[in-house]
Automatic annotation (TrEMBL):
<feature type="modified residue" description="N6-(pyridoxal phosphate)lysine">
    <location>
        <position position="204"/>
    </location>
</feature>
<dbReference type="GO" id="GO:0016846">
    <property type="term" value="F:carbon-sulfur lyase activity"/>
</dbReference>
<keyword id="KW-0456">Lyase</keyword>
<dbReference type="InterPro" id="IPR015421">
    <property type="entry name" value="PyrdxlP-dep_Trfase_major"/>
</dbReference>
<keyword id="KW-0663">Pyridoxal phosphate</keyword>
<protein>
    <submittedName>
        <fullName>Cystathionine beta-lyase</fullName>
    </submittedName>
</protein>
<dbReference type="InterPro" id="IPR015422">
    <property type="entry name" value="PyrdxlP-dep_Trfase_small"/>
</dbReference>
<dbReference type="Pfam" id="PF01053">
    <property type="entry name" value="Cys_Met_Meta_PP"/>
</dbReference>
<dbReference type="GO" id="GO:0030170">
    <property type="term" value="F:pyridoxal phosphate binding"/>
</dbReference>
<dbReference type="InterPro" id="IPR000277">
    <property type="entry name" value="Cys/Met-Metab_PyrdxlP-dep_enz"/>
</dbReference>
<comment type="similarity">
    <text>Belongs to the trans-sulfuration enzymes family.</text>
</comment>
<dbReference type="GO" id="GO:0005737">
    <property type="term" value="C:cytoplasm"/>
</dbReference>
<dbReference type="GO" id="GO:0019346">
    <property type="term" value="P:transsulfuration"/>
</dbReference>
<dbReference type="InterPro" id="IPR015424">
    <property type="entry name" value="PyrdxlP-dep_Trfase"/>
</dbReference>
Length: 406
């Protein structure tokens, strides 16, 4: 039977303290005990259902974590105050001094900067590889490697990781396969394809309203327990705890994720096909021209499509900047980083979200100055959006009139 992630969320049932249809928000940082003995047991993690202190756990955070674990099909999950809070906790839990990570070279700029510049201070070194070449990935593994790290669909180049193939390699060398699934929630279920740990920045599609920063780590009960251990757990001790009010609001937004993803994907596919028709060479995993289009199809939960992210290269940073400014002026979206909003968001990653990556490395991985990354919005009339975007490109002579007639 195929995995139906949206059903997993829908089938959860929670009630509030007074029979409310939403779980009550626990608005306390600390909890009282009738017996001192229970307090000790709770601190040690041996008293189920008791709460001690909200950095350790809180009812609202557990509800959100359970819903996200259901979505990803993992035993459990723990939420964090940001996506980076999730990523850094996982990497520091799995690797120590002298150990090694093999990572995709096309990853979120913050993750790249952490692995490249910060983790070496802890004695953790990383080899960055082209994740689409399994033989290159395997060749980078050393006796000290502990983690294979990738994004299912990479930021910003939209490269697609072969999660089944990577899981085989991880198994062979007893590594943990850690997958950041921020770009493809519901569309791809990495755990079902063999990933050990699945991470999201909740800030993006999952929350979907660009009002909150958050993250989640989905994995086995044993791993999540390790992360939360009061003596040596990275999630516990590094302190990136989500606030209960925020987790309650993200849980409410999670319920419409399946509808939003369908609309993001439908709109992005429409624009990608139209841009392709204009000769613009968009990059979108839903296009047959994408090098990993067939691979994506073998991994996807079909109902949710190929996601809401696409890129086009308009040739130079100057052109990219003027186009983005004009599109914003005409209210086609916002010149802003981040993704998963109801409005289209666009940015030039080479000079923003991926600027942590040195220029020569950007060049090598194919990240050009004229690249614009779009997070396509929930536009009700995407045809109108397309016509207006086309007009912007014609006005700026990015598109020439003859290429449109032809
Ligand atoms: C935004 C993002 C992150 C970081 O998440 P924050 O919530 O900003 O800390 C990590 N990975 C990917 C793919 C992202 O897009």
């Amino acid at each position: 039977m195929t995995f139906k992630p949206a059903n997993q969320i829908q089938d959860l049932q929670y009630f509030g303290e007074f029979g409310g249809v939403n779980p009550s928000i626990s608005d306390s940082s600390t909890y009282t005990f009738l017996s001192a003995k229970t307090m000790f047991d709770t601190f040690e993690g041996n008293a189920d259902g008791c709460y001690l202190y909200s950095r350790h756990s809180s009812p609202s955070n557990l509800y959100l974590g359970e819903a996200l674990a259901a979505m990803e099909g993992t035993e459990t999950a723990t939420v964090t105050s940001s996506g980076m809070g999730a990523i850094t906790a996982v990497l520091m839990q799995l690797c120590g001094n002298g150990e090694h990570v093999v990572s995709s070279r096309t990853i979120y700029g913050g993750t790249y900067a952490f692995l490249k510049n910060f983790a070496p201070r802890l004695g953790i070194n990383t080899s960055f590889v082209d994740i689409t070449k399994l033989e290159v990935v395997e060749a980078a593994i050393t006796k000290d490697t502990r983690v294979l790290y990738c994004e299912s669909v990479s930021n910003p180049l939209l490269e697609v990781a072969d999660i089944r193939g990577l899981a085989k390699i991880a198994n062979k060398y007893s590594l943990k396969l850690v997958v950041d699934n921020t770009f493809s929630p519901l569309s791809i279920s990495p755990k079902k394809l063999g990933a050990d740990i699945v991470i999201h920045s909740l800030t993006k599609f999952i929350n979907g309203s660009s009002d909150t920063v958050g993250g989640v780590i989905c994995g086995t009960q044993d791993f999540i327990d390790e992360l939360r251990n009061v003596n040596d757990g990275a999630a516990m001790l590094l302190g990136s705890t989500m606030d209960s009010l925020r987790s309650a609001s993200i849980l409410k937004n999670l319920r419409t994720l399946h509808i939003r993803m369908q609309q993001h994907s439908k709109n992005a596919l429409f624009l990608a096909q139209k841009f392709e028709g204009l000769g613009l060479k968009p990059v979108y995993p839903g296009l047959a021209a994408h090098p990993s289009h067939e691979l994506f199809k073998t991994m996807m939960n079909e109902a949710y499509g190929f996601g809401g992210m696409l890129t086009i290269d308009v040739g130079s940073l100057d052109k990219a900047n003027t186009l983005m400014e004009l599109m914003q002026e005409r209210n086609l979206g916002y010149l802003a980083v981040s993704l998963g909003f109801y409005k289209t968001l666009f940015s030039a990653p080479g000079s923003s979200t991926s600027s942590e990556i040195p220029e020569d490395e950007q060049k090598e991985m194919g990240l050009s100055h004229g690249l614009i990354r779009f997070s396509i919005g929930l536009d009700a009339d995407i045809e109108r959006t397309f016509e207006m975007m086309k007009q912007c490109m014609m006005d700026l002579k990015i598109l020439k009139a003859e290429s449109i007639e032809g």
